[in-house]
Amino acid sequence: MKKRKLVSLLLSGALVFGLLAGCGGGTSNSNETPDAQNSGTPSSEAPSGDAFEMTVNIASEPQSIDPALNSAVDGAIMLSHMFEGLMRWKDSGSETAGTNGTCNNAVLDYGQAESYKKTPNEDGTVTYTFKLRDDAKWSDGKDVTAQDFVFSWQRLVSPETAADYSYMIDCVVNANEIINGEKEPSELGVKAVDDKTFEVTLTSDLPYFTEICAFPATFPVREDIVSNAQWTYDPATYVSNGAYKMTSRVTNSEIVMEPNEYYYGVDTLGPKKITFKLMDDQNAMLNGFKSGELDFIESMPTDEIAGLMASGDLKIVDYIGTYYVCYQTQKAPFDDPRVRKAFTLAIDRTYIVNEITQTGQVEAGGFVPAGVYDADGATGDDFRTQGGNYYEPMSGDDKAQYEANCEEARALLAEAGYPNGEGFPVVEYLYNTGDDHKSVAEALQNMWQTQLGVTVTLNNQEWATFLQTRKDGDYSIARNGWIADYNDPMSFLDMWLTGGGNNDAQYSNAEYDAKLQAAKASTDPAERMQLMHEAEDIIMGQDYALCPLYFYTQKYMLADGIQGMYYTPLGYFFFDHCTQG
């Protein structure tokens, strides 16, 4: 998932992805289980504990708060408070390392589904049958039905929707054919057996399918609601099925949520109001936090970070993601892999993480970050350790390794026809507004000019505009970032399939596509991972389509006395059970 802000990654031992055990579900060690409400009857009781209002800042105006159309982390956090999928993330009761008691780990649990059954079929497909909760309700009191999920999943893959995340459910029978316009959305391998039974048939089983069922793109929406193209802008038409409902939206200012009285767990909720302030000025964010206007922020001026860390006010937690540069691979001069590799090698990543970001980020020597499972899962070496580096990412104490990288970069650029940068066109680096991104951009500009003799100009744009410009391919080099949607290398690799909705590099390689399609079809863990390693070898080791800078960590500040926040290293913070101590 796209990430707009500078964040960071301290990979401590075990990342918490508490998946339901076995094929039929299982148990989780949560210290809170939502109490069911009577069907169709809103609760008249106030949420438990001391009700209070919470004001947070995640980012500026979101790209979209339509579950099918959002592709950024900030939108996903908002959506996860207002919608709920078949599965959901909840508080595990175990403290997140490095948070000093301010945050717990999230664990996967049932959401709108109360159970599921997995059935292997003779033709190699696998059918998941989900039983929906009897008390699953929309925020207008109507029942959530299996047909709502059928409609929503068909809508996600429909070419008319043009969802970046259509490929998220390409594991479902006929999904790829529908995405490619070869079949109708009605032919997707999903059906409503009855009002409370939703059936999904996969081409082959996936170890992370239940995580997909908690991903925002798979959240249900109502057909009668989304037929209005402007449905997400008016609280009267923004009907949702999650813990909170939107009560106010002021563009570029705030999105306000209050408890959904029809939600089955409404009596357990914390804040009586959550206000998401929409801001992109990091000085204003920090000042708002210090003044008490904001209870939570995750971005602040770069020059304030060291002091905030020293005081203990700034917390840093695990985050599975990569901050990187993408090249427009279909346009000169970056249609030449030699040029792309030269630009990649000429970057001093150690300088960036030590002097600019300063919150424990790790220099990236590959695209799939540390912490992503390999064949042996949480008990074995991760994918990055198994795959190794495609170049030496650390400059070394004496900068000798960096100098060696730069010598190779200059030779590659000369081989491509630009000795010492002569004749190389002026190119532009595109990034979204933010002091942190600006600092990185200026460092890259200087490194490329100093080491390669090329001229790179800088252009920053507001977030939503930036996303569209990059998606349209109207750039030469652009800032990018990706956070895992689930803990599997596929979350980082299948976005680069030819024609993919999140393929901002417009990368295309038939051999790469074939490796990933074979990995998607395989049920053997070792074979799957080997195919994905071979795919990364192509995009990184051969084509150099991407330029990873560092592996993220996540930073945040939370107001004193607030308890009950929980978090998953996929980047989602949850405020629905926060209380004021």
Describe, in plain words, how this protein is organized in 3D.
The protein is α+β, with helices and mostly antiparallel strands and 581 residues long. The chain has 16 helices and 23 strands. Strands 8-9-10-1-11-19-12 form a 7-stranded mixed β-sheet, with helices on both faces. The radius of gyration is 23 Å and the shape is globular.
> How many distinct helices?
16
Unreliable runs: 4-49
Name the overall outline.
globular
* Mean pLDDT reading: 91
Structural key phrases:
16 helices, single chain, alpha+beta, 7-stranded mixed β-sheet, 6-stranded mixed β-sheet, globular, 20% strand, 581 residues
List strands and helices in order, with pairings.
Layout: E1 53-57, H1 73-82, E2 87-95, E3 104-110, E4 113-120, E5 126-132, H2 146-157, H3 175-179, E6 190-194, E7 197-202, H4 209-212, H5 223-226, E8 244-250, E9 254-259, E10 273-277, H6 282-291, E11 296-297, H7 305-311, E12 315-317, E13 321-327, H8 337-345, H9 349-357, E14 362-363, H10 383-387, H11 400-415, E15 427-432, H12 435-452, E16 456-461, H13 463-471, E17 477-483, H14 490-493, H15 510-521, H16 525-542, E18 546-551, E19 554-558, E20 562-563, E21 566-568, E22 572-574, E23 579-580
Parallel strand pairs: 1-10, 1-11, 3-21, 15-16, 15-17
Antiparallel strand pairs: 2-3, 4-5, 5-7, 6-7, 8-9, 9-10, 11-19, 12-19, 13-17, 13-18, 14-18, 20-23, 21-22
Helix pairs in contact: 8-11, 15-16
